[in-house]
Amino acid sequence: MSDQIFQSHQERLRSGASNNFSLATVPEWIERNTKSPKDLAEPYSFLDHEYQLQILKDLSPEKVVRKCSQIGISELSVREVLAIARIIDGMTAIYTLPTANFASTFVKTRVDPIIAASEELRLAVNPNLDNSEIKQLGNSFLHFKGTIGAAAAISVPSDLNVHDEFDFSDLAVLTTYESRLTHSKYKMRREFSTPTLDDFGISASFKRSRRHWNLCKCHHCNEWFLPSYFDHVKIPGYDGDLRHITKHNIHVYRWEEAFLICPKCGKSPELGPEHRNWVLENPTESHAATGYQIQPFDAPEIITPAYLVNRSTKYKRYADFTNFNLGLPAQDDDNALSKQEIEKLHVPGNFPGGMICCMGADMGLTNHITIGFKDYLGKRYVVHRERVALADFEKRKRELAIQYRVAVSVMDSQPYVDLVMRLQNTDPNLYGAVYTNSKNVTTFTVKEQEEEPEEGKLPIRQVLVNRNKAFDDLMSTVRRGEYAIKSDEKEDETFVQHCTDMKRVQKFDQDGEMHYVWVKSTDGQDHYFHSMLYLHTAMDMAGVATHTTAMPTLVRSFKQSRKL
């Protein structure tokens, strides 16, 4: 019998053996068929990571895990996917990470070593389909993909979608993967991530789940409590807020002796598995997904209170420590404009009259219009805000342009390109906005092309808005006190909601570098904030005008400056 025939025979026997397991016995499969990453001669063990057993044993098709970093969840997710691929012979799984390079490195450093150390997995791999993008194990297939820069999901059916580093992936692309599960009878889905902002990404998913927290029972007084860094970690001789310990003063405190206390008796409790229990926070709510919050205290032999205190001094932004080391959402001034900041802009009464104005419009079935001007000192005033139905937009735009002496307008080109081009026929200073994403610090670039029928060229009049840099500039301008908004009872509340819905979060780019991007919340609306950005851009394009008689000069000088 040849080696190839023997291996095929052995594989069939092993596939039959795999049928002795089920999704309910995934932990046992992992322990029997994979090895310890620290000692390949030893079977895998959940020692010091006992919290993982509950997550694996949970048979919910959809599971959401909001976690701190370096807690072993990615390692767990790989082993679970490999186990399911062998238990359900013939299934397909899609495993995503933020970028293709990230996914490739992950396969080489996390997935391949687990397979190589396991005789069961190694013999199941088809050598003709064994690379950093796809693996065949028996009759099952595993696909590993990035999301940043991907136009859409891969066109293969799936039984299990696993989205690792969820918050740092392209959420729009991840949404397209949902259709891949349509024809599966399993429809399994996993989301894992350190969080960023509340109501965004993994935190939004966690809120829409049956939320589990790992409580501790104090062995001194039998009090059940949820360990908290800010409430229960203490440093001998220090009674202040842990947030006040920085890299500049940590050396004066006994941080290496930091310990966790019970909120009832004040003694230090044991945090081992025999003193822990997963508790469902919202038993009366019916959600499709089951959620788990993983804190550093869930692996007390790996992460100590002293380590956490030390790590809290290593970040430029304290929110990053809260996200990565505590596994909790956090927001600071870098992330968004606050409700108070926007409300403070609203001013009752009239603004200076006789000014040349600009217009910004965010287009949709309901169009959001903002009109304002910039005075000779650089102060920006928003004098009018209005929501207009698409059917009434052309007429209303003309009326507002006359009423407010609008010199320059910027409106988004999508989704109504034909409308923008038609309006440009009668308004030479109307520009269609197109969002771009460039590392260049320039916030916008104007592009014009005269009509040349003989060469087949259509007239183009558009402004390329460097989306993330432009929103950064808008936020900075607001915070410098350069904006005032005329109060309007009908629009103020909606305007505040839209301007605070968008958040500035960290994402990987296609080169694997972390940078900030502006995103809206899962369920929120952001139309007025886009309209404000278009107005902000129009003001910068138009320059300064101080009187209505300057309008013709303003328009001519603007047009001429674009042609230099």
Task: Give an overview in words.
The protein is of the alpha/beta class. It has 18 helices and 24 strands. The strands form 4 sheets. Strands 1, 2, 3, 4, 5, 6, 7, 8, 9, 12 and 13 form an 11-stranded mixed beta sheet that branches. Strands 14-22-17-16-15-18-19-21-20 form a 9-stranded mixed beta sheet, sandwiched between helices. The longest helix is centred in the N-terminal third of the chain and has 18 residues, at 100-117. Residues 544-564 have low confidence and may be disordered.
Rough outline: globular
Number of DSSP E strands = 24
- Unreliably modeled segments: 544-564
Q: What does the radius of gyration come to?
A: 29 Å
How would a crystallographer describe the biggest sheet?
A: 11 strands, mixed
What distance lies between the first and last C-alpha atoms, to the nearest angstrom? 81 Å
Task: Please work out how many helical segments DSSP would assign.
Answer: 18
